[in-house]
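Page 47, continued from p. 46.
Same chain as before, 272 aa.
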Amino acid sequence: MKKCNLFFGVILLSGIFLAATSCSSKKDTLPDFVKNDMKLVWADEFDGESDEPNAANWIFKEGGHGWGNNEVQNYTSKRDNSYVSDGTLKIVARKDGGKWTSARMVTQYKKAMTYGYIEFRAKVPAVKGSWPALWLLPENNVYGTWPRSGEIDVMEASANMWGNKVYANLHCLSGHGGTPISSKGVEVKKMDKKWHTYAVNWTTEGITWYYDGKVISEYRNPHNNEDNWMAWPYDQNFHILMNVAMGGNLGGDIDKKTERAVMEVDYIRWYQ
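Result:
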């Protein structure tokens, strides 16, 4: 969580403790049903003393083979591309010598769960050619490789394709790639300058997407009996991914003047 300087005023009156702080509190976007009926079961607040993301939570997917989407970046585990400072994580896509590097961080083999309310607080790059994403993939591909076992995109953005909108997308065998089974965009002003929360509530009956605590869209479990997995493979453990891709099928052309694209993440919280 992003740190701030605190000034405490303490008054003891009839057993009541009052505290005041000099930094403004964050806007509370957590839905009431989460506050009242769920518990926090996993989180990364990016508050560690080291500039390295917590190795107990993350591994890095590395390489520059286009990742099935003709992307141009090479993913690395170097601190030039991902680091923690001042209570937040920075994922940095950068051009060096005409070539792009970035980071793709995942909780695979570290943390994967089924169902819950998963919330990210982030600033998302809006430069043309960038393709940032906060998303979930199956841990064990119970129904086979992509798209058979599904994909849950909590947030993805492309300035070239969608302008100032972010999208909530869902992929499975019944709808994937350019025609996801569920897709909805929402306008986000100053997505790269202001903090926003992006979340999903994932249950046995459906998946609902939230932006700053408000519902974006919903996809319901169709309960199609024997072939239900084709449209609902979301009954297995999924893990978290965060990355900033550059170019490719969705990122599009990169502005020649662009040297960096940064996604900043304040926290990730998983409630059940």
